[in-house]
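Title: Prediction job returns without error message
Component: structure pipeline
Severity: low
Priority: P3
Assignee: unassigned

Description:
Job completed but the reporter wants confirmation the result is attached to the right record. Sequence as submitted:
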Amino acid sequence: MKRRDFLGRTGALGVAGLTGGLSAPALLLGARPAYAVGDDIPVGLLFSLTGSVAVVEHTLHDAALLAIEEINAQGGIHGRMLRPIIEDPASDPATYADRARRLMIRDKCVSVFGSYTSASRQAVLPVVEQRDNLYWYPTLYEGRECSRNIMYGGAVPNQQQDNVIGWAIENFGPRFYLIGNNYVYPKEENNYCKKLLAELGGEVVHEEYVPLGHSDFSSVINRIRTEKPDVIFATVVGDSDVAFARQYHAAGFDPEEMPVISLTRSEVEVQAIGGEAAAGHFSSAPYFMGHATPENERFVESYKSRFGGDQVTHFVSEAAYFQVYQFKAALEKLDPSDVTPQAIRDAAVGVELAAPQGKVLIDENLHTHLWPKVAQWQADGQANVILESTERVAPKPYAAYDGQTCTGSGLVNG
């Protein structure tokens, strides 16, 4: 997924926390550490600053760090500063698990903010559950998870698809071509898409998956030309999405007649694709950089001021930002002597705050109620929101699977 060179970013961050390892005895300790007993509150930032996903994860790191800096500038929480401890898992799932363990045991972090991919979240999951700590995950994901130790800030399938599939059928037609990368998220999103299409009278003319990093879409383009679908429903990510968008544009397809509707294309990908090739196509997400709210205007202005005027915000960096404020709101409900991951989790349930996308809410399942939007990409690289939910939408992590649901106590079957 790497499209730009971010070498040297880590040396300029100005926040420490990259040294040392854990001895075997420390790793085997069963007792919980004494959390936040000093003058500050340690929190982990576990986003890749190097490797294949750094092109996206550095923006999540930056957004979370910006929120921490803003909170500290306002006096911290109960007068105590947040102390970010940074680890670079280098885009390797096993390293995420190792560094998460280090942050929780050695550094006594009361929460860790991290990850972009489901693979890295799932690598951390057994660690955070074993330590009974909290992992704040900002990314849209496939659902089918119900952990009491993960705070889910991103959209699940119903929050991205319920408003767009019927709209697409009505405006473009019922015949969908499904193209995604070959891993869990695209396949689960497509499972839900197929369920909606069956309910709404749509059909799948072809379903195809390509490897992560795939760049030659000539056979896909030829098949699309033959099938002539009404809609291309895409869950292609990173460099693959950039290549697909450019080759789709070069093939001469008209987005007014056969648009790409993506669940994964954000301002970051469009910046790499180029406005001309992206223009006219659509994305479905809870947040776009051009969304007009006072909270978003402040977020974008602060982000650009801190990290550069050419930088963009997007639907995952926005969640990485507001999750730190959700963490702050939970801590403000607690006695300063009771700053533990378990207490923070319990206090976070029901937290509502004005995020850049609108007022978001953490429910008893530790998932977030969000504001679905559909936007059309413009030649300037920004998105024009054309369809927005009039009500905040509750997450349904198991919406594709009848009889399964996530409750405050775990997964329920039947």
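Comment from assignee: result matches the submitted record. Confidence is low (pLDDT under 50) at residues 1-31.
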